[in-house]
Amino acid sequence: MGVPRVLTDEEITEGLAGLPGWERQGDEISRTYSIRYHAAVAAIVTIADRSRRVQHHADIDLRMDSLRASITTHDAGYRLTAADLDLAHRIDAIVAAHQALPLD
After folding, report:
1. Which segment of 12-16, 36-40, 65-69 scores lowest on mean pLDDT?
2. Long-range interactions of 18-24: CB distance < 8 A, separation 24+
3. Which of 8, 60, 68, 83 is 20 to 30 A from residue 39's alpha carbon, by CA?
4. CA torsion sign, 29 to 33 to 36 to 42?
5. Which among 25, 3, 22, 19 is positioned nearest to 81, based on CA atoms?
6. Torsion (CA) 10, 11, 12, 18 in degrees, nearest 10
7. What is the arithmetic mean of pLDDT over 80-103?
């Protein structure tokens, strides 16, 4: 498979335009969702399952009333790749299915 191709700054900006609520901090993208604790736990289980299937995962921080997902590609030297943007779309759909409201 090899090392995934690292995205250019322009590609990252373009990709984030289609991911409202996601923000870039250096070589990582992240988003915080407002969500009840037990709904977040269920969402995390689904995120973990889907992540395993696509062989890419997010760092997840669970709080009483929020869930934060942060993504970077470890295999690309902790840089951003197309896999990160794809996983962000998947996480958005999963959290939406668990009735989350994104924080503004």
Report:
1. 36-40
2. 18/85, 18/89, 19/85, 19/88, 19/89, 19/92, 20/102, 21/92, 21/102, 21/103, 22/88, 24/80
3. 83
4. negative
5. 3
6. 110
7. 89
Tokens of 40: 């977040």
What is the Cα–Cα distance from 60 to 89, expressed in whole angstroms?
A: 15
Read off the amino acid at residue 32: T
pLDDT above 90 (res 63): yes
Phi, psi of 70 (to 5 degrees): -125, 135
Q: Which two tokens stand for residue 31?
A: 């988003």
